[in-house]
Amino acid sequence: MKLDLISKIAQSNDSLLLEEIQKLLELTDSDKIYQLSDSQLESLKAAENDIKYGNVIDHEEVKEMTSEWLKK
Length: 72
Prior knowledge:
extended; 4 helices; mainly alpha
């Protein structure tokens, strides 16, 4: 499989595909430190506050809501 992937990557001229492959490979780099933007940090803090104050919906309820929405 590895050799097949290497061959397909080597033959590809699709820059978007190659960029996505690069991003996926970078995700496997366990030594990498991720820098979050201010808006990402703000979103995480808001999510933590939602959890802290119980402003959450459990998975089953979300599935039910989605099912009802898709019926419309």
